[in-house]
Amino acid sequence: MKLSWRAGTLALREPFRGWSATPEREAVWVELDDDGLIGRGEAVAHPHQGLDAARIGALLDRVCGHLDGGADAEQLLTDPGWVRELHATPGVRAAIDSALHDLAAQRRGQPLHEWLGGPAAEPVNTTCTIGITTTDRAAETAGQLADNGFEVLKVKMGAADEAAELARVAAIRDAAPGARILLDPNGAWTPERTLRMLEAAVRHGVVAAEQPIRPGTPQKLAWVAQRSPVPIIADEDAADVTDVLLLSASVHGVTVKIPRCGGIAPALEIAGAARNAGLDVMLGCLPATTLGIAPAAHLTGHARWVDLDGHLLVDDDPFRGIGGGDGTLTLSNAPGLGVEPV
Fold this sequence. Notes:
The chain is of the alpha/beta class. It has 13 helices and 15 strands. It has helices spanning 53-64, 73-77, 81-84, 90-108, 112-115, 135-148, 162-175, 191-201, 218-227, 241-247, 258-261, 264-276, 290-297, and strands at residues 2-17, 21-34, 37-44, 124-125, 128-130, 152-156, 180-184, 206-210, 232-234, 253-256, 280-283, 305-306, 319-320, 328-329, 340-341. The strands form 4 sheets. Strands 5-6-7-8-9-10-11-12 form an 8-stranded parallel β-sheet. A hairpin with a 3-residue loop joins strand 1 and strand 2. Helix 6 packs parallel to helix 7 and helix 8 packs parallel to helix 9 (218-227). The two termini are 24 Å apart. The mean pLDDT is 92.
């Protein structure tokens, strides 16, 4: 089995403002060649973690020597500790994990969700994100998304002017009257501001809020959730199973992101722990190509909320296989991830 990788740049359709404006991201595409069968994965640089393409490549180079033995993809997936021992970041582990899963399922001639033995991956609605922008631009984007078939919109929040923020939500509602709206302040609000904003925004069709206050203060998040008029979904506060168990009596749901937890198995473990604790699951993502989103797209049967629009934020996606442009993710049912280069 031979590992190779190449780096490239993801240009975003518009500078994406959550915490900051980011017009592009570096990405690294991984290929595992096992006697001509190719498994693929993707790692996207994360500026807040100081992780760039060069660092991702260096971590992948350390993995190469561990793939020269006779183990196949299924055998390597049964013992994921060898990747952790290389001190690779979760995003890099997730890229290798994706490629191994892609290979293993292809060997069996099964789509990944079938090989995993999970729920069938039926066509499912995904959110699409509207960044922090002008009211007019937000309304225009919402109208276009609604016309294209999107039924759930996620709105980034966190600007200083509360009245302007609420006006933007109202304009989105007017432009997309049938859409459900999720708010995502990325931890920018105080607990008190969260309640003010949600009590005012609920009349505009807001159905949930994701990580409204800064992570690391679960007691305050619980205080908010107990008083909120809409469900509160923990994102950064729900990085692993331990976090989920601590949050089980505090919030209504948790976000699971494969690049954050390091692979499909830990993502399923977190989702299972959440469901057992009575919490809803949101499958989330970061800006990525179709290849980067595909592993999570095979897990949508485990989630109530599907927030897998990262590939829709990218110009000139170099891969295809999961759809989404009409608001619906539809897998190809080809073996493995079902993703191919354009």
